[in-house]
Design goal:
single chain, 70% helix, elongated, mainly alpha
């Protein structure tokens, strides 16, 4: 049942709080992108830590698989975001002025 409780805490995958410039109230795209990459990196490091703990016999297979799948989903989300950004850049570069 501990594994099921762990799944309930997965709601934060892909959700980012939008940092805003306190003076203007505007959201800086580079800050949002940087935060998302840092969160994906943190999820990957957490999965690596869980794998090491599994190897040492400290956690069970269920928790390890959840951590690995969470890292995989986060990576896939970041990859799709990158693909959209590259596609938007290519579209802008094709625009004739």
């Amino acid at each position: 049942m501990d594994g099921i409780k762990g799944i309930n805490n997965q709601g934060s995958i892909g959700q980012t709080s939008l940092p805003s410039n306190e003076k203007t109230g505007k959201v800086d795209f580079s800050t949002v992108l940087k935060d998302a990459v840092e969160k994906a990196d943190a999820v990957q490091k957490e999965a690596d830590k869980t794998i090491k703990e599994f190897s040492a016999g400290k956690v069970n297979l269920h928790e390890t698989m959840i951590a690995m799948e969470k890292a995989n989903l986060t990576f896939q989300l970041m990859l799709q975001a990158r693909n959209k950004i590259v596609a938007a850049y290519e579209e802008i570069m094709r625009t004739q002025v």
